[in-house]
């Protein structure tokens, strides 16, 4: 029995040692509301609402699994009175088991107008991520603390610099974001606790205004990571009376989703509230270990300034 317990603890420690670098170098958090949360991936998105925009999103992934991911993302962005400049701030807290990750970035976008109806935005961001691995929460399968796991990465931080481009008009958008540009070579010292992976996010949407009270919004996002499986997400959303949205989506990680949003306006359209909910369900073996993933989004738009040289023929919902 003693030998069995020692073997279990040693094996658990070995697994943790082998996996800690992968945990710290994980990809950016995944959201079903990805197309309403592009500021998280792409700094060029800031200012695209053409108004002050504030948003909070909470994702509970794989509900029912011990230590499942829980992510909170809060962001604000707005164009300035000098209309070709926009600023934003993005914060996130990501918890996975014993690992907690907090990040804050400041974002800047320079925007160029074309033909009074198209905008090309070039963005940059800078910030830092702070990680905390609470080793006391790591136990072996007999409920005892694991004394063999490493503690080199218990607390660490990592600066990040990102960039992106975002091109949009009254009924379409295309974006490419790179949240982290800094190369692995400058993070070889153990004090950083990680070596970042460059990730590319490519997004696109087209809003089809079939009737005044009926619109379709297909969206897609591609996530590209070197040496990792290619990921893609597709969704089709229906917009009714400019207040209600419902959609379905599919992801190449073998999961599907449903999404609903309620979007009332106030003060003659000068203020807008958006409340969204989504539910994901896995197709593969992970489905038996959890009851799905839930996501809640709340955003608020306020017209603090009106662009003088851009005209939109219909409301945009991205």
Written description of the protein model:
The chain is mainly β and 318 residues long. It has a single domain, classed as Beta Barrel (Porin), CATH 2.40.160. The chain has one helix spanning 2-24, and strands at 52-60, 70-79, 85-96, 99-114, 118-133, 155-168, 172-178, 200-206, 208-211, 214-224, 231-240, 244-251, 255-262, 265-266, 271-282, 293-302. Strands 1-2-3-4-5-6-7-8-10-11-12-13-15-16 form a 14-stranded antiparallel β-barrel. Residues 1-26 have low confidence and may be disordered.
Low-confidence runs: 1-26
CATH topology: Porin
Instruction: Report the top-level CATH class.
Output: Mainly Beta
Kindly give the count of domains.
1
Structural class: mainly beta
What's the total number of strands?
16
Q: What order do the SSEs take from the amino end to the carboxyl end, as H and E? A: HEEEEEEEEEEEEEEEE
User: Proportion of β residues?
Assistant: over 45%
Mean pLDDT: 81
The multimeric state of the shown protein is single chain
Order of the strands making up the biggest sheet = 1-2-3-4-5-6-7-8-10-11-12-13-15-16
Corresponding CATH architecture: Beta Barrel
- Overall body shape: globular
**From the alpha-carbon coordinates, what is the Rg to the nearest angstrom?**
21 Å
User: Helix proportion of residues, in percent?
Assistant: under 10%
């Amino acid at each position: 029995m003693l030998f069995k317990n020692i073997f279990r603890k040693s094996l658990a420690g070995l697994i943790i040692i082998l996996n800690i670098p992968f945990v710290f170098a994980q990809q950016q958090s995944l959201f079903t509301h990805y197309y309403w949360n592009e500021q998280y991936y792409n700094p060029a998105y800031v200012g695209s609402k053409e108004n002050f925009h504030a948003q909070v999103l909470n994702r509970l992934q794989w509900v029912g699994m011990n230590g499942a991911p829980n992510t909170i993302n809060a962001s604000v962005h707005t164009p300035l009175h000098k209309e070709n400049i926009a600023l934003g701030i993005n914060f996130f807290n990501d918890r996975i088991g014993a690992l907690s990750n907090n990040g804050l970035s400041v974002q800047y976008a320079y925007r160029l107008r074309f033909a009074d109806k198209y905008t090309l935005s070039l963005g940059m961001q800078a910030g830092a991520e702070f990680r905390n691995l609470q080793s006391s929460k790591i136990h072996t399968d007999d409920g005892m603390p694991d004394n063999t796991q490493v503690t080199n990465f218990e607390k660490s931080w990592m600066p990040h610099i990102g960039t992106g481009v975002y091109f949009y008009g009254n009924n379409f958008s295309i974006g490419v974001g790179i949240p982290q540009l800094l190369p692995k070579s400058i993070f070889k010292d153990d004090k950083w606790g990680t070596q970042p992976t460059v990730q590319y996010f490519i997004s696109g949407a087209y809003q089809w205004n079939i009737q005044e009270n009926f619109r379709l919004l297909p969206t897609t996002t591609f996530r590209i990571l070197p040496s990792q499986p290619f990921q893609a997400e597709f969704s089709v959303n229906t917009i009714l009376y400019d207040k209600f949205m419902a959609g379905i989506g599919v992801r190449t990680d073998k999961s599907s989703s449903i999404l609903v949003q309620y979007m009332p306006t106030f003060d003659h359209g000068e203020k807008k509230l958006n409340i969204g909910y989504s539910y994901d369900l896995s197709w593969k073996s992970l489905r038996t270990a959890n009851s799905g993933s839930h996501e809640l989004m709340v955003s608020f738009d306020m017209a603090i300034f009106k662009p003088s040289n851009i005209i939109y023929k219909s409301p945009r919902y991205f």
